[in-house]
């Protein structure tokens, strides 16, 4: 979640509207929920694919032994035993019962003559034909044992009506739903953020970033639409491309954002036009004469305020470095040196006071006139105090 927020949740610099900033802050609650949902959904979908892949392996192995090789008797029994030993259902307490169940089913298959003969095996593909109960027991026992071996806590009342694999399929539908719902919510929040923090006229970067996110949002909605068909949903969960699709879509956003920003900066630098400032503040200009100057506007455009020309992009990199930490660079050092300065030299806020200390004020001077110290400090009182 933190890694995703580092790029997709950049903190905007400067003031861009009080109401919009409040919406920007409030939207972080659904944004972070969406990030957590995507991460947790990825883990659950990975487990679902593991079960679906191995269940498919069991079914394909049985079809190969029975319909392709037409094994029978001891040979068929040995093949099924090797398949049972491969999954090691006897190594866990949760799956020990399924191991005994499949072991009994394999023994019944081996004692059934001609169960996988060429004639009988061909009839299993007919429209109304069914597989023998012994072979179905082997298939279902192994598949259910795989899911139970993951440590899932299944409700007792559900197991009285459904097998663990049937319960798993219904759970996968919910996982698939909140995974892509969280993904779509994440992209929707990112789209809203782009509109909230934009303060300048839209350029190529704004168009490409928004359009790309809308396309990704549409793809996420299309993936959710697969829930309307159970076969397509099961195939999607069993596919190894499900999680890489999400990663690829996020990577696509990164690439297009980077390319469009590089292109826009190159065009701006080539044109020599003014660029949008990262932040602006209104204040007073310095008074250059005894009459002073009017109320003006100060544009801060770099780490040294007022030192970057607005008609070029020479200080753009320095401005990025300064704005990245959302702070203003200080042009005044904490202390210029450890030596003392005379009153005529440049002084800073933390310049040490001259020694010896200031003399008492002139009694002839007006009572309310103060003489500032060279270090920038002002005496608290003009009178002298003796004693404790």
Automatic annotation (TrEMBL):
<keyword id="KW-0812">Transmembrane</keyword>
<feature type="transmembrane region" description="Helical">
    <location>
        <begin position="233"/>
        <end position="256"/>
    </location>
</feature>
<protein>
    <submittedName>
        <fullName>Uncharacterized protein</fullName>
    </submittedName>
</protein>
<keyword id="KW-1133">Transmembrane helix</keyword>
<feature type="compositionally biased region" description="Polar residues">
    <location>
        <begin position="324"/>
        <end position="349"/>
    </location>
</feature>
<feature type="compositionally biased region" description="Pro residues">
    <location>
        <begin position="354"/>
        <end position="366"/>
    </location>
</feature>
<feature type="region of interest" description="Disordered">
    <location>
        <begin position="282"/>
        <end position="388"/>
    </location>
</feature>
<keyword id="KW-0472">Membrane</keyword>
<feature type="transmembrane region" description="Helical">
    <location>
        <begin position="177"/>
        <end position="197"/>
    </location>
</feature>
<feature type="transmembrane region" description="Helical">
    <location>
        <begin position="204"/>
        <end position="227"/>
    </location>
</feature>
